[in-house]
Amino acid sequence: MTSTVNIKSTDKVWYITGASKGMGLLFVQRLLAYGFKVVGTSRDKQQLIDAVGSVGNADNFLAIKVELANEESVRASLEQTLSKFGRIDVVVNNAGYSTNGALEENTDADVRKNFDINVFGVFNVLRNVTPILRKQGGGFVFNISSVASIVGFSGHSAYNATKFAVDGLTEAYAMEVKPFGIKAMTINPGYFKSEFLTAGSYQSVQNRIDAYSAVHGLIDTHTSQVSGNQRGDPVKLLDIIIRAVEENDDTTSHIFVGADAYPYVKSKLQKYNQDLDKWEQYATKTDRDDYVEPKQQQ
């Protein structure tokens, strides 16, 4: 199977969360077809095995049942990975979903559950895989974020918050582990064709408040017009990730992917600059009157 990137070697072990459907499943199937060894995690192991199909076999594929919000479950999956393949080279934190609806409509439980998978699941994987990568002397971590990590979307405050968090934790993590040869970055897609906008991955609030009819209209239009017709090809997104691995990229923090992502991001950056210019003359004059600049160390 031909890749759009020159793959020099397939002698790497990939660990991918949320692998039984959507983009994660396509990643697993294509990586196996390219010749890599792949570990896929899912809450339903048999569903994952059935979905991957004949491209996965005992030599190149390991399916593991994992509850990402349970740290012991995550730790056990990494131990199984090492027992099977002896190492982990590339980690893709892909699992995630969206709770939508106006913020007032989201219960505390709704939001916490969304954070459990999208954010705390990532923390659990990184906390436990980092000692492995450190001991190996390197590795790659790709946290699947979104263009929604930098652009707010009405009706998606919980999801936006989780992806803003993923970007922030990844930036800090990347700085911490760079001395150990570990490269970490976010992948921030626009709209890519997957099951993300379907039930189970895109969860609507149960009890809508009539006052937010405009927000509901935006959400309903979004799902009816975009779901199943996203312009991005997940296989080409995977090839971007493989390219970063092949180039041994240690300079990139975020890879925004998709022709539709770039106008969103550039517009947001322009807005940031407008806000900075508007308030700089006031907001930079907030030092204490008795503040003394520390002397630079010689």
Keywords:
single chain; 298 residues; alpha/beta; Rossmann fold; seven-stranded parallel sheet; two-stranded parallel ribbon; 9 strands; globular
Structure overview:
This protein has 298 residues and is an alpha/beta fold. It has helices at residues 22-34, 45-52, 71-85, 108-136, 157-177, 213-226, 234-246, 261-283; strands at 13-16, 37-42, 61-65, 90-93, 98-99, 139-144, 182-189, 202-203, 254-257. It has a single domain (13-283), classed as NAD(P)-binding Rossmann-like Domain (Rossmann fold), CATH 3.40.50. The strands form two sheets. The chain has a seven-stranded parallel beta sheet, with helices on both faces. A two-stranded parallel sheet has the order 5-8.
List the helices and strands and how they pair.
Layout: E1 13-16, H1 22-34, E2 37-42, H2 45-52, E3 61-65, H3 71-85, E4 90-93, E5 98-99, H4 108-136, E6 139-144, H5 157-177, E7 182-189, E8 202-203, H6 213-226, H7 234-246, E9 254-257, H8 261-283
Helix pairs in contact: 3-4, 4-5
Alpha-carbon Rg, integer: 21 Å
Q: pLDDT below 50 for ≥5 consecutive residues: which ranges? A: none
What is the number of beta strands?
A: 9
CATH topology (fold) name: Rossmann fold
Number of helices: 8
Order of strands across the biggest sheet? 3-2-1-4-6-7-9
Q: Indicate the CATH architecture.
A: 3-Layer(aba) Sandwich
Provide mean pLDDT, rounded: 91
Largest sheet, in brief, is: 7 strands, parallel
Broad CATH class: Alpha Beta
**General shape:** globular
Order of helices and strands: EHEHEHEEHEHEEHHEH
Please state roughly what percent of the residues sit in beta strands, choosing from under 5%, 5-15%, 15-25%, 25-35%, 35-45% or over 45%: 5-15%
Protein structure class: alpha/beta
The total tally of domains equals 1
- What is the fourth-level CATH superfamily? NAD(P)-binding Rossmann-like Domain
Helix content estimate: 40-55%
Rounded to the nearest angstrom, the distance between the terminal CA atoms is 58 Å
